[in-house]
Structure formats: structure tokens, C-alpha cells
Amino acid sequence: MSDPADYRKALGCFGTGVTVVTAHHEGQDWGMTCNSFSSVSLNPRLVLWSIRKEASSLPAFTQSGGFTVSVLADSQASIANQFAKGAMAERFAGVPVHRQASQRLRLDACVAWFDCTVHQLVDAGDHHIIIGQVRDFGWQDAAPLAFCRSQFGQFQALS
Question: What whole-number distance in Å separates Cα of residue 115 and Cα of residue 133?
């Protein structure tokens, strides 16, 4: 069996977008950086993301009934870092947000957002896969933030 660090490096070769996922649970806002976000189905509108079973925020995302995904713009790398660690109050400090009808927060200036109810929870190794049904969404024509090999970057179209 190879070294876990090598496995992580191999996984890091797959470039992704970067999101911040938020929830509102027991009167508190929760948020975390996530790059495991993916579409599942167009009809019904389903998306997924995964969370470590040991995450302190697990109950907020699995028991609150829903979550909002904000797809970050290429100018929001500092926000991705801010939501990656630290106390919840610190994560939201100074970040412009919009409270939706669902009471969940979405980040201003994001490229796209998806407000979802939890559709299904799938047990998968040391993570849970959370599948959400999209109830509302929006987008703007702006450049998204990219992440590959542990570095932030930008997508560039091939000519």
C-alpha cells in the first residue's frame, strides 16, 4: 500500500472549483470551504458535496435540513482560506453575505449559488456524502476560483 500523502497528491491532480457551504442550525450560522461539490441530476435538480465524519460542523450540515453552496469567484481565494479553519464567528467576519428566505447565508460576489434541502445522506468511508435538492439558485458571468495541486488558480480556456 502506498503512502497516504502520495494518494492525496494523486487526488490533488484533479482540478476543481472552490465553494463555501453554509447552514443555519440552532440559531447559529455555519460555513466551510469545500471543493468536493458536484452536480448529480438536472431533473430533479440535485447536487452533492462531502464532509468528514469527524468535522465539528457535521450536525449543522446533516441535521439542519439544508445548506447553501456559494461557488467562489477568482478574486475570493482569501475567503476560501478564511472558511477553511478557525472559529465559526471568525469565518464570517468581514465577509459580505446575504441571508436568504431559508435563513442560510450565501456569499456576495460569488459566481453561482445553490440553496438546497437535504435529499439524501450517504455513508462513505470517513466522509458523508450530502445530496441536496436545489430549491433556488443564481449565477453571474464572472471567473470562478480554481484549485489544483494544493494551489488556487484560474480557469483558462484552451484556444
Answer: 8
pLDDT digits (tens, 9 = 90+) for 18-38: 999 999 999 999 999 999 999
pTM: 0.95
Give residue-wise pLDDT tens across range 42-58. 999 999 999 999 999 99
CA-to-CA separations, 33 to 21, 26, 43, 133, 156, in angstroms, rounded: 6, 21, 27, 20, 22
Reported as half-sphere exposure (CB side, CA atoms, 13 A), residue 105 has a value of 22
Q: Write the DSSP string, 107-124.
A: ETT-SEEEEEEEEEEEEE
C-alpha 25/C-alpha 46 separation (Å) is 22
- Three-state DSSP at 138 gives strand
The answer to whether 53 and 127 have CB atoms below 8 angstroms apart is yes
The DSSP H or E segment spanning 32 is: strand 28-34
Measure the CA–CA gap between 88 and 120, rounded to whole angstroms: 25
